[in-house]
Amino acid sequence: MSETEHPVNETSDLPAAGGTDQDLLRSLARRQPLIVGPGTSLRETLYHFSQDHLDAAVVCDPASGLPLGLIRLRDMLHVIGFEGGGLDDPVAVHMIGAPLTLTADAPAHRARVMMAKRGAEHLLLTEHDGRLFGLVNQTDLLGLRAGGAEVLIAGIKSARDVEAMALAADRVRRRGAELFHSGMGVETLCYWMSGLNDLIAMRVIELIEDEFDLPAVPWCWMAFGSEGRLEQTFSTDQDNGLLFVPPDPDSTESVRQSFLPFAQAVNQALHFCGFERCRGNIMAGNPAWCLSADEWRKHFKTWLREPEPEALLNAVIFFDFRPLYGSDEPVDRLRDWLSRTAPEQTRFFHCLAEQALGVAPPLGWAGQFAFDRNRDFPHTIDLKTQGARFFMDAGRLWALKHGIWATSTAERLRLAGAAKRRDPEEIAAEIESFHLIQRFRIHQQLTTKDPEAVNRVDPDDLNELHRLMLKEAFKQAKKLQARIKQEFAS
């Protein structure tokens, strides 16, 4: 059997995370990678590169098929041209022995952030059992490096203290504002901002981690809320938590106490960098949200099986969780458990639907705008609680119902719509309405100096076309609520 192969990908026995999520890495590996054995010569590998117009190959064990490393065209040319390497050298001598690797069912956003952080050009994709699935490069993951992000990423990576990180965060926000005003799409902008904010948070955690002697156990910093949904805008606070895996249940409290000073220092550093402390104290430095993997699962199990209205008000923030820094695996296991457990909880969905229907879109019976009774901001609409939330609630509800791993609202609506075989044009209209409301929110955040008014808009301040567009977006929200009521609350 030849050491150089182009095998067909095999399907993992484990279920795909979220089933049909088109933003998973699995869907981005559009072609089979070149696979070579460790004894394959540079000459033979170069021949395949030239024939197939490739720039990298995966080195695999011919017996087990497990990936051993990565060999890149650029490295091979350097070795031959400047280091005296021979064309008959085996690739194993010159390969990258521990290439960047993720499971094929990881979200593409995670890969974008990881590749940007490491400066990697290629990423190996594996099945859950370690077998090779594919290979992606930066071209497959376009997005984060748009808008001149390279300079910003370099500034984040080179920061050596929290003061430098605060300056880097400010540069990201200012560049994001420029991209918004130049017309970048809302979804693209939010992915861009969230990706760079992830890098900022990861670098802050790295800097603070060096100051503490943390327990030698698996742990992960988790993002919730808008950060978890990849929908951070220009006025955002912290929603985060910490998950750890203690060596045994009896040591849980001692491990928690060891993590808390570190988590509190990270929360303080993020606050210094412009990410305001959560008013509801949903932060990793709060002992209530610095929990073992078993404790997190128990919380979610309680919310699913005993969905009291008051608990659900906060719980919805946690359902948007995703791993940010540390060991992804225990958080992914939690998400996998949730995606399999939640769809069976009928009472939970009934209560979650009632909560989603508790506020009506701000349109009166004659199609005119309706206003809340906020005395400080009369004749205004809160585009977060009376606008974007209708789409967020629907996306979250259907994602949990259909076991979808995606956390972003637009992706949840796309995937849930596909699972329900809905008209693609209707789904597109809902997503466009959500993004329109988000655009109005971002514009307000960039123009007001009052932190209490960052999500409020006075329709009289809009031109006629924008008022009509906002009304149409609220009509889409009403249709969403009608579907929720028909499916869950009737």
TrEMBL record:
Q: Where is the CBS domain?
A: 29-87, 95-151
Alphabetically sorted, this entry's keywords are:
CBS domain
Q: Which GO terms describe its molecular function?
A: [protein-PII] uridylyltransferase activity
Q: Does the keyword Magnesium apply?
A: no
Asked whether the UniProt record includes Transcription regulation among its keywords, one would answer no
Spell out the residue ranges making up region: Disordered.
1-20
Q: What's one Pfam family the UniProt record gives for this protein?
A: DUF294_C
InterPro entries (UniProt xref): CBS_dom, CBS_dom_sf, DUF294_put_nucleoTrafse_sb-bd, GlnD_Uridyltrans_N
> Can you say what this protein is called?
CBS domain-containing protein
Source organism of this protein record: Thiocapsa rosea
